[in-house]
Amino acid sequence: MGGGRRHGFTLIELLVVLVITAALAAVVAANLPAGARRQEFLARWQDFVTDLRAQQARAVFTGSIRRVRIRTVPPAYAVGSGPYRDFPPGTRLVQASGATPLGDPLEILFYPDGSSSGFEVTLWHAGRRFRVRVDPETGRIRTG
């Protein structure tokens, strides 16, 4: 019975595969929270930009001034007199200009003719810059 080759894996080979698999799983698991925080930030950022556009449209439609308030620390925003919506931990407001009044909270106004008080806000999250600018004359909202 001796000359045939055996097929299969040795115990050592199986253990090496298990160790490599465990190491890869640990790396993936360690990066999941950061990915989730980034997704949470991107969702809040998109909500913020959408709410700005909605307030501008409401100002034109209703014929009344609409506002968005921005709190600088911790960064958050509120539509009208509603509750603040916090940006996720790790977000910093690094620049704000043109809001009325310059203070905390900042107040951005949208007028019935489609114009705005004009402003630019820059947030920093996970090493990336996110900026929104509203032209004071046209009310055009741009991100970048």
Description of the molecule:
With 144 residues, the protein is of the alpha+beta class. The protein has a single domain, classed as minor pseudopilin epsh fold. It is built from 1 helix and 8 strands; from the N terminus they run αββββββββ. The chain has one helix spanning 11-62, and strands spanning 66-71, 76-79, 85-86, 92-97, 106-110, 119-125, 128-134, 141-143. A 4-stranded antiparallel sheet has the order 3-2-1-5, covered by helices on one side. Strands 4-6-7-8 form a 4-stranded antiparallel sheet, covered by helices on one side.
Rounded to the nearest angstrom, the distance between the terminal CA atoms is: 74 Å
Total strands? 8
CATH architecture type: 3-Layer(bab) Sandwich
Tally of contiguous helical segments: 1
Low-confidence stretches: none
- Helix coverage percent: 25-40%
